[in-house]
Amino acid sequence: MLNSLPFEWFILLLRVLFVFLLYFFVFQVIRVMLRELQTFAAGDRQEPVSEPAGHLLVKDPGDSGLRPGQRISLEPVTVIGRHPRATIVLDDAFVSSEHAQLSWSDGRWWITDLDSTNGTILNGRDVSVPTGIRYGDTVEIGEITLQLVP
Questions:
Q1: Alpha helices in 45-149 (DSSP H)
Q2: Farthest-apart Cα atoms in the chain, separation
Q3: Under DSSP, is residue 1 helix (H, G, I), strand (E, B) or coil?
Q4: What is the mean pLDDT of the chain?
Q5: Which of 18, 31, 114, 129: CA 20 to 30 A from 89?
Q6: SS3 for 10?
Q7: Per-residue pLDDT tens for 45-103?
Q8: What is the model's pTM?
Q9: Helices (H), strands (E): how many in the chain?
């Protein structure tokens, strides 16, 4: 069929096809932008995710060099251990290099034991799985006792 068309008609057909593809592309871009704007507008109606807020209050420092009553700020993911790269470094012989992790998820704090040698104790019970922790709860790591406070 292309052999029977004059060259000018072939160029015209290519131009029309190009214009059609260009308009189709612009239509798709506008459609995606409108969908994104609708999603963004719907997202504004949802409640904002609460920011993590909390500190660890030193109740019993053990042999760590911490002071009783000292407040330690928490990050959204806080690793507690003896290693210098831990978020909270506790210099105690009974604390593993990466002992426990406190993390903010689903609007609350969670504590996880990171396979430490001596374990992590929350309110007198061993932590074996990620466990929710509330303000006022006490955490024992080695010989150090900490309390979660707002």
A1: none
A2: 95
A3: coil
A4: 87
A5: 129
A6: helix
A7: 555 556 777 889 999 888 878 888 999 989 899 999 988 888 888 888 888 889 999 99
A8: 0.63
A9: 1, 11
Whose structure tokens read 């061993």?
126
> DSSP labels for 50-77?
PPP--EEEEEE-TTSSPPTT-EEE--SE
pLDDT at 49: 52
Nearest CA among 131, 144, 124, 135 for reference residue 58: 144
Q: What is the average per-residue pLDDT within 26-39?
A: 92
Q: Check if the beta carbon of residue 148 is closer than 8 Å to that of residue 136.
A: yes
What pLDDT score does 41 carry? 79
| Alpha-carbon gap, residue 146 to 115, rounded angstroms | 19
Distance CA(87)–CA(80), nearest Å, equals 6
Instruction: Count CA atoms closer than 13 A to 105's CA, side-chain side.
Output: 11
